[in-house]
Each structure stands twice: as C-alpha cells, then as structure tokens.
Amino acid sequence: MKPVLMCREVLVDFAGFKALQGVNFEVYPNEVRFLIGPNGAGKTTLLDVICGKTRACGGKVIFFSHDITKLQEYKIVKLGISRKFQSPAIFHQLTVWENMELSLKQNRGLFAVLRAKMSTEDREKIVTLLKRIHLLDYAYQKAGALSHGQKQWLEIGMQLIQEPRLLLLDEPIAGMSGAEREKTGELIHEIALDCAVLIVEHDMDFVRRFSKQVTVMHEGKVLCEGTMEEIQQNEKVAEVYLGREEKAC
Ligand SMILES: Nc1ncnc2c1ncn2[C@@H]1O[C@H](COP(=O)(O)OP(=O)(O)OP(=O)(O)O)[C@@H](O)[C@H]1O
C-alpha cells in the first residue's frame, strides 16, 4: 500500500538548535497514527513541517505524489492536509451551523456566505457531519455556549467539511471529560474511514485505548514504531518516556 504521507530525513534547525534531526516516517491510508514522546521531542515541530507552518532545512515531505516540503500553507491545505490546533479556532458569536457553513465556503467573505443560499447537497453535508460530531441538536446554538469538548468537535467538523485526505490533530482530548474523550476516540476512528489521521497525544490511557500504530519520537528523531504493546516492551522507550510516566503514576 502506498503511503499518504512520507517524511524522509526531515531536518529543522531553529538558529542552531536541531529540533528535527532526520525524521523518517510514513502514514498510510485510513490509518489512525499516534505520535508520542517526551516534551521537546519534536512532535509539534513535525506537524508544523507537514502543514507548512515551519520550513524544513533538509529532507523531504511527500504527500501522495506531491513534494510539499517547500509549499506554502494554503497550497498544502488545498492538496488535502488539515490541521487542528490544540485550542479551538471557532467563531463564538456564530451558531454551530454558521461555523460549519463558513468553513464550507472558506474562500468567501463572512457576510457573503451567511447571505448566500445553500444547495441541498451542502445542507446534507453539514447535517451528516453535525450528526457525526454529536452536534446536530446544537446546530442553532452559539458556538461560544458549547462545552470545551463540543468546541473541539465543532472544529474537527469544520476541518472535515473540506474533505481532507490527512487530518493532523494536536492533543485533541486535552481538557475533555471522560465521556467526551471516549466519544472523541470513536470519532477519530470513524474519520479514518475516509481520511488518514495523525495525532500528537500525551494521554497514555487514551493512546492505549484507541491506537493501532504508534510512533515514538525522542530528541528530534523517530525512536521506534509499533503497537502500544510492542513499544511498551521496548527498553529505549521505557527509558526515555514510558518509564518516566509509569514512575510518575
Ligand atoms: N520556534 C522555535 N524556536 C526555537 N526552538 C523551538 C521553536 N519551536 C520549538 N522549539 C524547540 O524545539 C524542540 C521541539 O519542540 P516541539 O514543540 O516540537 O516538541 P514536542 O515534542 O511537541 O513537545 P511537547 O510535547 O512539550 O509539546 C523543543 O526543544 C522546543 O523548545
């Protein structure tokens, strides 16, 4: 199977500090891939490189057959990579529906979008996604009134409406209740039926519960990959990461 995303020897240098030191890494179609590692390992920097926010000074990032290493962020989005940051970027004064509508027609102005008539197809698309993110009953509620978890889901919905082929998530369950975490884990696997998902996550219980393949980063490199069971057996991982976590518990 051909990978959706392929990183080859990716290097990032922040004024002499080598945040990524030759990352090699692949994500496959319909995969939910977790990226874990201690603080400062380079996980966020890697997501930043993939979405074009940070420039690699060496190596290549290939998305399907496109070399996206030097592409501008908006071009990477157009090719089908969506990034959701940790804090939700939604319009609090608009309703859930309006937020979705705005994302659907991102290249048009706010008032043009809200005044324009929607096609039946677009309406159906929003309804289907709102069902999926558990927000159909909240469609006409102001986004600012949603719970923290619901705001996160809304932003995920706003990314999905653009039909990405790779969704990047940065600690999606931070600040969520137990029930919201569970629903988010299930949602991520539903999303993966249509697009690959790459998730940076610190919550090991969540990773254990919802992961298949996990990539461990350490000091700007991939330390190892495998199932959570496999990487838990890995001595290097225990030393740099899991050991510390287990001890801390
Ligand atoms: N813009 C920047 N300028 C200089 N150093 C940076 C910059 N961004 C990140 N770094 C450094 O690069 C290293 C990797 O940071 P990064 O945020 O990618 O790690 P991380 O694995 O995501 O950590 P965490 O889990 O704490 O978010 C860290 O030492 C960080 O301080």
TrEMBL record:
Keyword check for Transcription regulation: no
Start and end residues of each ABC transporter domain: 5-244
Annotated PROSITE patterns: ABC_TRANSPORTER_2
Gene Ontology molecular function, alphabetical: ATP binding; ATP hydrolysis activity
Entries under SMART domains matching the protein: AAA
Keywords: ATP-binding, Nucleotide-binding, Transport
Keyword Translocase appears in the UniProt entry: no
One CC-aspect GO term: plasma membrane
Listed Pfam families: ABC_tran (PF00005), BCA_ABC_TP_C (PF12399)
InterPro entries, A to Z: AAA+_ATPase, ABC_AA/LPS_Transport, ABC_transporter-like_ATP-bd, ABC_transptr_urea_ATP-bd_UrtD, BCA_ABC_TP_C, P-loop_NTPase
NCBIfam families: urea_trans_UrtD
Name listed for the protein in its UniProt record: Urea ABC transporter ATP-binding protein
Organism: Paranoxybacillus vitaminiphilus
Upper lineage: Bacteria, Bacillati, Bacillota, Bacilli, Bacillales
